[in-house]
Known about the structure:
- This protein is an alpha/beta fold.
- It is built from 19 helices and 32 strands.
- It starts with a helix and ends with a helix.
- Residues 241, 287-288, 363-367, 385-390, 413, 479, 481, 493, 496, 502, 507 line the site of adenosine-5'-monophosphate-propyl ester.
Amino acid sequence: MTTYKEYHARSLRDPTGFWADQARLIDWHQPFSQVLDYSTPPFAKWFVGGTTNLAHNAIDRHLATRGDQPALIYVSTETGEEKTYTFRQLYREVNRVAGMLKGLGVTRGNRVLIYMPMIAEATFAMLACARIGAIHSVVFGGFAAVSLATRIDDAQPTVIVSADAGSRAGKPVPYKLLLDEAIELAKFPPSKVLLVDRKLAEMKRVPGRDVDYATLRAQHMNDEVPCEWLESSEPSYILYTSGTTGTPKGVQRDTGGYAVALAASMRDIFCCEAGDTFFSTSDIGWVVGHSYIVYAPLIVGATTVMYEGVPVRPDGGIWWSIVEKYKVNVMFSSPTAIRVLKKHDPALLRKYDLASLRLLFLAGEPLDEPTARWISDGIGKPVIDNYWQTETGWPILGISRGIQALPSKFGSPGVPAAGYSVKIFDEATGAELTQPHRKGVVAIEGPLPPGCMTTVWGDDDRYVRTYWTSVPSKHVYSTFDWGIRDEDGYFFILGRTDDVINVAGHRLGTREIEESLSSHPNVAEVAVVGVADALKGQVAMAFAILKDATKADTLEKKLAHEGEMMKVVDSQLGAVARPARVHFVSVLPKTRSGKLLRRSIQALAEGREPGDLTTIEDPSALQQIKDAIHA
Ligand code: PRX
């Protein structure tokens, strides 16, 4: 038997041999002629010349052997809908939507923006895009008009697929209203908008532009749309994510490399195979939803569960009741979701028969030991952390139980996954820190393995500048996370090096929030930092200088002003980005050259020492931060 260490070592020593082996996990229409082209680093092309299709691998190839097996189980505790689609039924629905999109003028390489609640049609739309070679850009439903408009303008979609409304904890979320606002703001509006009418909200239709999904579907009932065979490196999708600068980056994913990497990750890390049932509680608007609700489970022939609702409605046992009812084998969630459950009756963890469940994976933010122990003891199953990013599309660090039963260590997401050469570098010098327990930037030596981002949509320079130059060492990709490695090769992640914060597993850019708050007419200057929070991991906290401070000079006025500013963020970016608090100060801590001392503000907000202050311009600014927090 190969040890995991040998397995991983081979993936780096002989990447072409290793990945050629993995490539057999998927179907190719035309075989590739070269496993890896790394002639223009950092751009890596995997499986050059090979043609394939994600929808073929996720659906068509299973029809002969598992056509009647459930492919997608949809459960909504918001509407009470519960529906199972077999692979054959999924095939039919995806062909219909593919026909509909083609009919609306979408062709290979066009973008289709999907702004949808967690409904089965969202999955159909993604797979339909894959089928016809259109590039989907799914935008998380929690984002509001300005965020959405930025993404519309960057992706310039031919068609947008949306719905009247979503529902969260029984309250409608007006997707169509927000979409109309966004299209109004956008410079590149789509020519058609395809709308699912769930009859949850009133919908005004724009004649000539808005098309009804059900009506169009009825016209495409019998469509059979052949798969477009894409060259392995052709883009499958764009997914926007936050970074240091205000404008979100469109992470571009390839086709062949992604399919291969996902299939390998299901075997090596998630221990999930054909016939199993996989339940990821994420949202399709995030990378976990793309990879582990939609593509990975289906590619390996597993059944995927898609859930619309919150984890505690009707009560904190809802997920476990789904596990019992649908005999879920593998589950994937986030630490915040578990911390939410922790506030509810622990007896709910024991109420259902969880015999089918083998493993629970958690990712997206640091997993604290009490939470890991609580859930693992509560459900009596192993709980496994894994660490990755929108950019990589699948785990960088994990516990590859599929190869060898490696032990987990609390606080560590594990060891590098096959294909990743993960190292720690000194941020300033770019020197590799080879000794254990040295804190530095977690970085990946190029080439990135298959499945990772291939570039920033429409901006190769930004890709190189952002990811490949921040560690001053050649061909090294920065994760923008601090970390250390111990003597056994386990990594520990210690937070971001940039201005990204992680609120309840949602990745947000503090600069975006600052920009939004600055648009309030009474804001002169504002700083937003992430502050540790027992439930959400982090929350955003804002410190603002007002143009007219008299508008917040009493407690009552302060609260009203704070509420107004929060509303600005709600309406522009979405409630997901709303700061937990907005404090008012008259000066912000800056260096003499005018740079905001964000790390000091964050430290003070968390009750820590502010760190190196030799360059501070006005030390009284620190006192103001302290006073504001304790007021
Ligand atoms: O800071 C790391 C944190 O989340 C970031 C990536 O977020 P996102 O692009 O939304 O992708 C999430 C995919 C699971 C990382 O740069 N992060 C993610 N997983 C972990 C984590 N931090 C600590 N432990 C983890 N397991």
